[in-house]
Structure formats: C-alpha cells, structure tokens
Amino acid sequence: MLSGLNHLTLAVTDLDRSVAFYQGVLQLRLDATWDSGAYLSLPGLWLCLSLDPMRQPEAAADYTHYAFSVGANDFSMFVERLRAVGVLEWRDNRSEGASFYFLDPDGHKLEAHVGDLISRLEACRQKPYAGMKFFTS
C-alpha cells in the first residue's frame, strides 16, 4: 500500500545550472551530487536531478506541474526574489490561496503555493467546481 510521495526526479540538460537554481534560488538543501545527478531536499521532499542532455523542454500547454509550499508571511518576498532573477511565469493564479507559477531552467512547470488540501477543500465547499463531489467531511 502506498504511504506517500517518495521522491521527484526531474530530467535536466545542465546539471550545474539546475543545482544552482534549486539550491541557490529556491533554497533546497544540497545533499549529494555525482557526475550525472544530484539529490536535494526540503522537509518531506526528496528531489533528484538527473542529467539528460537529450531532454527537450515540453511545449505542452497542459496543467501538469510541481507545487512547493510557502508560508503566507514569506510569499511576497519569495516571489520578488524569483522575479529578480528573471524566472519565467507560465500562468496566473486562478484558485484558492496565493500561488506563483514559474518555470525552472529546463522548463519544468513549478508553483509556490500558500495553503494545503484542507484550505482548498474548504474553499471548494464554498464555491465548488462544476460537478464536484466531496468524499470526506
């Protein structure tokens, strides 16, 4: 039986650039590196960067992305820091809780989000999506 998300692996084209982004800009802890990869972490998240020089940034317009939690008090400063280093934004926030949608150096879609599943479900109970059903109270 599954008990949670174990880790996230992202294919990257320039390992040094990606480590600099995730460690320096997003401030994940760098735990290990090797010739073709790196492990970084946050409490509850194990991130693997895996060198793949053949990776082509996806031009897909889908909503698949990876969201990181950020505290409400830190949100504005975090967004300012990302904008100061020139990250590209890929979407405007359209849901509950403050969110900033941005791309990493390889075009992976990321989000910094204030809130959690409990706050999202509470907002949805007030204004449900079309056809929404709830299975927990």
UniProtKB/TrEMBL annotation:
Keywords: Transferase. PROSITE patterns: VOC (PS51819). Residues 4-115 form the VOC domain. This is Glutathione transferase. InterPro entries: Glyas_Bleomycin-R_OHBP_Dase (IPR029068), Glyas_Fos-R_dOase_dom (IPR004360), GlyoxalaseI/FosfomycinResist (IPR050383), VOC_core (IPR037523). GO terms for molecular function: transferase activity. PANTHER family: GLYOXALASE DOMAIN-CONTAINING PROTEIN 5, GLYOXALASE FAMILY PROTEIN. It holds the Pfam family Glyoxalase. It comes from the Bacteria.
